[in-house]
From TrEMBL:
The gene is sam. Coiled coil: none annotated. The keyword Membrane applies. InterPro entries: EamA_dom (IPR000620), EmrE-like (IPR037185). It comes from Rheinheimera nanhaiensis E407-8. Residues 7-137, 148-274 form the EamA domain. This is S-adenosylmethionine uptake transporter. Its main location: membrane.
């Protein structure tokens, strides 16, 4: 029988595959659509896919006494999206995903002070290894690149806050409610700047937006369930798995090179993920 930690890790792997797919769609649409359009339609189509859950569960799905946490998560989530999509449009896909993957390094720090979760020494060591792996795989610094990295770092911090918020509210809020409110609130918030940044879209971009909504809904459900059944500080390292999917998509669709530095960083990252999960299985 699978342990909650193992189930959480598998769900997080599924979520990260979906998020890497979203990254590929964002990169594909960035040449045609504005960032405001990408953010809105990512949330709008995800919301449409969540409507059947509302029909199935009825108004009971909307009942919550923790609306402030849903709103907080939506605000941090949408700002992180704008930052993340900005980075993806300006870096190779695999490297752009790596910038976001600094968040697992930050999650246990936030969880320590907010949720009072104490990561073990081995988990802390694994987190440090993962951070080293990210730094190894990133490209060398330059003036323009440094500013992009700062935006990516802000996105990573906000993602870490978002994931810790999920863990905090999961004792009373089911995964479907968390994802539904996230999709609803982010769709509303991202609609505000849309008229000011509207650009004509072709049929391929519209199809890509639909695919992005599907991936977003599946990824959010899987991630939310993962953090509901397992501590954020123990499974957060598996967020790094999206870099493999991103590297594959970047190579297949844009012929982006897989460098030795990137490959070495990925190996370090996965070893870090292995030892932090292995300690709980023993």
């Amino acid at each position: 029988m699978l342990t909650p930690l193992f189930k959480g890790a598998l769900l997080l792997l599924l979520a990260e595959a979906c998020f890497a797919g979203i990254g590929a769609v964002v990169k594909f649409t960035s040449a045609t659509a504005s960032e405001a359009q990408v953010v809105f339609f990512r949330n709008f189509f995800a919301l449409l896919l969540m409507l059947p859950f509302l029909y199935r569960h009825g108004v009971s799905l909307l009942k919550t006494n923790r609306w402030y946490l849903h709103l907080s998560r939506a605000l941090t989530g949408i700002i992180s999206m704008y930052c993340f999509f900005y980075v993806l449009a300006r870096l190779p896909l695999a490297q752009g995903m790596l910038v976001l993957l600094l968040s697992p390094f930050i999650v246990p720090i936030i969880a320590r002070f907010w949720l009072k979760e104490r990561p073990s020494k081995l988990t802390l060591f694994a987190i440090l290894l993962g951070f080293i792996g990210v730094m190894l795989a990133l490209p060398g610094s330059s003036g323009g690149l440094d500013s992009i990295m700062l935006v990516g770092l802000l996105s990573a911090v906000l993602v870490a806050v978002t994931k810790t918020t999920i863990r905090y509210m999961s004792d009373t809020e089911p995964a479907v409610r968390i994802v539904f409110y996230f999709s609803l609130l982010t769709a509303i918030l991202s609609a505000i700047p849309l008229p000011f940044y509207w650009q004509p879209l072709n049929n391929e971009v519209w199809l890509a937006f639909v695919a992005m909504g599907v991936l977003a809904a599946i990824g959010q459900l899987a991630m939310t369930r993962a953090y509901a059944i397992a501590p954020a500080s123990d499974i957060g390292m598996w967020t790094y798995s999206s870099v493999v999917f991103a590297g594959l998509f970047g190579y297949l669709f844009w012929q982006e090179p897989v460098t030795l530095a990137w490959l070495g960083g990925v190996l370090v990252i996965f070893y870090a993920g292995y030892i932090t999960t292995r300690q709980r299985l023993l």
